[in-house]
Amino acid sequence: MIRLLRHPLGPRLYVLGRRVHEWQVGVVILVVAAAFWPAGLIEDLSATCLVLAGGWLVVKDWRDLFPSLRDTAAWRLGIHRRAARLRPRRRGDWLPAASAAVVALAGLVNVVSTVTPNIAARAHVLRSVEPAMTIPVFHALALPLSAALVLTSLYLVRRRRRAWQVAFSFLLLLGALDILKGLDAEEALLSWLVAGVLWWGRESFSVRHDPIRLRSALWKVPVVAGAAFAVAASVALIAAPGSGPLVISREALALLAWSSGPIPLGGEMSWLPVGVGLVSAAALVTGAYLVFRPLAAPRNLPDRELRRAAGDLVRRHGDDTLAYFKLRRDACYLFSSDRRAFVGYRVESGVLLVSGDPVGPDDALPGLVRDLCGVAEAHGLELAALGASARLLPLWRDAGLRALYIGDEAIIETRRFTLEGRAIRKVRQSVTRLEKAGYRAALVPADTLGAKTVEELERVSTLWRAGKPERGFTMAMDSLLDEGPGGAVVVLAQDRGGAVRGFLHFVPVPSRPAMSLSFMRREPSTPNGLTEFLVARAVELLRERGVEEISLNFAAFARLLHSPRNPTERLLGRLLSLANSHFQIESLYRFNAKFFPRWEPRYLVFERTRRLPRVGLAAMWVEGQLPKPQLPKPALRRSHSTPA
Predict the structure, then answer these.
(1) For residue 512, pLDDT beyond 60
(2) What gap in Å lies between CA 195 and CA 368, rounded to an integer?
């Protein structure tokens, strides 16, 4: 009659051989509420609860309303999300979000139970089976354990493995203390029931931690605890100078536990317990951070061997215009297990930010992304990719990531480019004016640049930046010298005397006849139009070398400026125009549009909407669009072993 079957995407309920969806149950509940409420057969509060419950069942199961989306989402307590084929399915994947609230509730219940008097009848029975003096001891032990359990719940929602171990152990112990301190069977049953749920879903707590070694930060916990005890003992000694060590120790422990001790603290010293209590809370939070901090983020820079392997993959499979930029010296690498594909990334603000698309043959990319998800999960990092192409969005969606349009890449088709015609007359006028002023363009391979020329290019860059740091990560190199597979070129703008006054730096797209712009520099004192002159002449010079496409630049949110699709996008386009003075969004779009390029959309892919502000901040830090606070962090190191 009724069967409940297991399924990779969640439980399936069948009644009389027909599957029952959650939205169908929700509709039935709503119909019952609509029929009985007006007739007065149910109370207003009950009807409201039925409407909320029925509506929630329909909302969370909305995908099953449409046959094309049915069986594409994984079951969870919240709204069902699209199944992630490249992420492992674990029993209790929904548990961390729910367990945090349940464990915190169990901790608060135990706190209340500890600070309230025992039930008289139960206390009488308890005194007949255990010494009366032990009951206050068990109360004293249960209080800090309960408070620590509430704090541990904050880390359960982040899937910390050690938080699960601590919470599970504390719940078992609290259940025993509930019995010993007052025969509180209800609290004990709640603690053990929650511990059983945690054990059932233990696989979903997947964030690993640094192993306990001699130099592990975990050894700082006793130091923090000792410092807090020393502060409390000092306060007790000041309050009662003639007390013995045992009294001082008892008073210090009582102060740290926010309770009364053997030494009365009143009058002018009445504020001391509050101060020591704050020290105790700070020590508890610091200790929790040290205990539950995840495995250190993988920040090791690749050594020469790994850089050579990455360069070989870019040369063989680098068909994306952003592929060459992964060879920056400040990019970390993650290779697939068979070394057939890799990604370049940086870790900022708890976000593992991938640069562009993975590089490698298509059949090797799913395994690489699966490994990438595993690395981010094990280290407790948010996974995102900046500058992803539309072609590989299905791959990222299979990893459970969402896509957000962030702008367009301007691609100039060299065969179609011409300076003839009215539409491009402003660029033509700039080119003519600069040539009359004696400027000439020359193309030089980057690996043949002499020391004097490199010095001139660095001088121009310094003048152009005017003291500001370099920008770019996803679509820029960090050096003029070509340390990759080769093929980078520099287009120089020289004045009548042969001095370099501006330049463009291009890197190759090895798997297709295309090049990508990396640097665009000029002296601020040069005539207006020098950059347009450089771009126009670069297109002609590269066309002579067989280059068919040039990735000119990236225009953030360009579609909102040149072809908004609806009133909302038109409004966003106007807002972006207002931000142009700081971010130069509209100026860069209008510059690119002068050359009538083909616009290729680029995306930011991310995991969770609520973490999008954090991902956006990390992306702007990496790209140099916002100044990053100089906080102490582990130094980037060269790796001399195989990648993670």
Answers:
(1) yes
(2) 36
pLDDT at 8 over 60: yes
Measuring CA to CA, how many Å separate 387 from each of 206, 472, 473, 484?
Answer: 28, 12, 10, 21
Three-state DSSP class for 268?
Answer: helix
C-alpha triplet 306, 310, 311: angle, nearest 5°? 115
CA atoms of 477 and 323, how far apart (whole Å):
11
Residue 312 has what pLDDT?
93
CA distance 347 to 339: 22
Give the global pTM. 0.79
Q: Please choose, from the candidates 24, 175, 200, the residue with its C-alpha nearest in 3D space to the C-alpha of residue 99.
A: 200
- Own/partner pairs, 339-346, CB within 8 angstroms, 24+ separation: 339/309, 340/313, 340/364, 341/313, 341/317, 341/365, 341/367, 341/368, 342/309, 342/310, 342/313, 342/368, 342/643, 343/368, 343/372, 344/310, 346/473, 346/622
Q: Residues near 440 by Cβ (< 8 Å), separated by ≥ 6?
A: 493, 494
Q: Please say whether the beta carbons of 323 and 358 come within 8 A.
A: no
Report the C-alpha gap between 555 and 527 in whole angstroms: 24
**515: closest CA among 321, 355, 319, 325?**
321
- CA 306, CA 332: separation in Å to the nearest integer? 10
Label residue 441 left, alpha or beta by phi (over 0 means left) and psi (-120 to 50 means alpha).
Answer: beta
Backbone angles phi, psi at 341, to 5 degrees: -155, 160
Phi and psi based region of residue 572 (left: phi greater than 0; alpha: psi -120 to 50; beta: remaining): alpha
Better-predicted residue by pLDDT, 529 or 120 = 529
Whether the pLDDT of residue 635 is over 60: the answer is no
Dihedral pair phi/psi, residue 74, rounded to 5°? -90, 145
Write the CA distances from 108 to 102, 104, 149, 445, integer angstroms: 10, 6, 9, 69
Average pLDDT, the chain: 84
Please state, in angstroms and rounded to a whole number, the distance separating the CA atoms of residues 420 and 100.
Answer: 66
Enter the tokens of residue 643.
């990648």
Helix (H, G, I), strand (E, B) or coil at 410: strand
| pLDDT band for position 396 (cuts 50, 70, 90) | very high
Q: Are 605 and 594 in contact (CB under 8 A)?
A: no
On the CB side of 374, CA atoms within 13 Å amount to 16
CA-CA distance, 644 to 635, in Å (whole number)? Answer: 17
